Amino acid sequence: MNVTASRAWHAIAVVVAAPLVLAIVEMLHPHPHDLFGLDVNRWMLVHYAQIPLFPLAALSTAMLVRDRKDWAAWLCRAGMFVFAIAFTVFDTAAGLVVGLLVKGALASGDPESWRDMIDALWFDPVLGGRGFTDAPWMGLIGRVALSFGAVAGAISLKRAGHGWLPVLLLAIASFGINVFKSHSWPGGPLTFGGMAIAAGWLRWETLRRQARAVALLEEGVDAAVAGVPGSARRVEAR
Asked: What is the mean pLDDT of residues 171-184?
């Protein structure tokens, strides 16, 4: 593999890796029906992994518009920033803290004595895993910000000349966790897997356009040199 091809694959991997890994992690996310029936070790591993992956996935989308200066690009960055903050806070409380409490309850031999304390957090309307309306505010803000940022990014990228299919995939995929109201299966994997594919596709389009522009520039330089009398002889003499 030559250096140019290696750099191209690296540029694609930079924007694909985080959302793709996050999509895989979300496929392992337990569905909590009874918190005391959780596979606590699996629950904790998934939520430890999500803490860095949520902001990294947001960054991968923001990187797609890093050279754009229009209003849509700025809204994309703002949306991804809010998503990264809100979902990291939400996942720390409803994921890691709840998991640690459940782990302590099960180890105590009297988990029922812990239930009121755990439920107070789990059903909290701001930070809870479910909230009283099944839509805790912090999780809801994060989910809406993700879709808002992705749609704004898609608009900016379409204005930059990208094709309809990848920008539509970026926008539509971001609604998975809003439709299913969860980042576990199927909402999370569909959302972040689709956004990973869209990010790779968009970056590939950018690299292809850049390569085409370089090729046209080189052809123009060669044509200009060929049109100068005696230029070929001077180049050969060098």
From this structure: 94
